[in-house]
Design goal:
Helices cover about 30% and strands about 20% of the residues. The protein is of the alpha+beta class.
Length: about 650
Amino acid sequence: MAVTWTRAWWRWTGGPTTRPVERVVRVDGRSRADEPDDERQAFGRWVRKRPRVDGGKRRGDGCGRRSLSPTWVLAVGGPQPAGRGGRGGGVGRDASRLAGLQRRLQGIAGGLAVYDEAPDNVSSSTYSSTPSLPGCRVAPGRRADAGLPLARVTSNRIDVEALAAMDGVGRFREVLPMLMDPVAFAEAFVSGDAAGGCRVPSRGMERHRATLRSCGVASDARSRPAFAMKAFTTPKKDGRTARLVLDARPLNDAMRRPPSMDLPRLRDFIAEVERHRFAMQCDGVSYFYQFPVDASISRYFGIGMKGCDMLLNVLCMGWSWAPCIAQRASNVLVRDLGLAWVDNFLVLGGTLDEAERNVAVFRKRAQAARVEVRAEGDDALWQVRSRFVCVGVEFDLAAETQRHRLDPAWAERWVGGSGMTAVLSGRATARQFAEVFGGAVWATDILAVPRCHFAALLSFAGRLGGRMVDAAAPVWDEVVDVPPSARRELGALRKIVRENPWVVGGVPEDTGSVLWTDASSRAWAALLEAEGRFVDGRQGVFAGPDADAHINLKEMLAFAEGVVRLCWAPGAQRCRIDNAAVVGAVAKGSSSSYAANRVLSRSLRVAERRRIVLCPGWVPSGEQQADPYTRGASLPRFPAPLSASR
């Protein structure tokens, strides 16, 4: 049974507390009289929510349904402003008003957040008294910068108008008004939220005030900013300097979502690089801070400080629109010349002469738009190479077969890090697990290792992440128990990363055959087509637990049976499936369902041993050749003409 919340309201209970306190109340149908007296007195206010029962589904590819668990609600005590609806000064008549309330109360009295029921495999220390919160997630804890100075920030400013004039497809011009046009900026706000009013003070940022002024990144506010948000610093990878970041969640919540970044998928990025033999790479110096912001817009990028707030005069790192603007600007500079990954520029060429010509064009564009760049690492600026490291990937384009692997320095840090040791021991903080898991996702993408092989690790990460939402109290330092199955899979991936094998690019030759698979509620079937006829096939009936499985999981089972029983020739094997969820899972190598990952892992391991590359494709159900054999028809005698399935 899935439960979704349709109405909610605050009720002030008149508790004896004189300061905001944070406690968790389980809302599962119990009346308030069922709560212990000490809890009833300690809470400044409590939350009721009226559930509506329906058949809601979790997001994902649908390969296995999972009902939503009972819900936990965080109630933050303290006096409440008068509101509309409810009784005793409650706020809101629907869930959307609760989100608005949370934005307005930031920095004043706290907020509201909803959490899933606490998972069983998280240690009891996670459920200690305030300030710990059960199974909740905040933005990953920021490492203290230990008083590090801000990294050198350029005072250069990009000529965005000149850059827009180079935009042949108009994607950058589409978002440029968010930097220069206050009217367009205001139109991006959710109705009624452009006035702002949020102020969250920063801690320890006063010592950076002179640095921010000197480089022109920020200036003292002459009037109250529309949004004065918390700024913080995080250490850069050199370990000697820090990066300034603005916690722009109040602003992000008040604005509509930005359009697509136009960032290439990592696998597409790698494939495009490996089509060339030479490359030049560089990156933008303090790239986000090179984008100027109109003075009338900078009042939305305020930094709450003691004494006098400051206003950012450049693109705000932390604002949801900033990556989109930066990436689209980068795409203009490398159009028809190479690739860009936010502030990393890669100019490519099939020959040395072509690469040098493209570099010359890129230099002219960068100079015309006044974009300041620098060489990556120890490379000389504008130097063309065939072996280099870019966005954490080492490329060797001079080899007979172009290849790539993980950046060895990154792989060494991930394998031998303290976080990895803690996770493999079985008890690690949520922050350590998140960092290790993020590295695991990155490594599997680069090394082309299907993530379905790590079903238990994915399942644990999904459960832990799904039960954590933003909260006022930090929980990333709480200890969680990592299941043995997840640790075993992580250990296997760690071994692969330690070896860091080269991955050869390119697509193998086609096998010349097509695998058709289909499933109904009762049976499955698979056919192998080659040379204009069916050469082999299998069919069967679902039994045991599989008989009650979701149709998407049955389709995955049919696909696995077809691969294991019918596909033997090495090469690119075309597969035709009429289920989009299965097509997507096979294409990306993983599913959101644990059961589907186990089935998919079995078929992909068989394909790897036989040196088969599976190439799935979707077809309408009316064109599925295997469909009749899932509905009672018997397989023909092979070889059989294609008309046999009609």
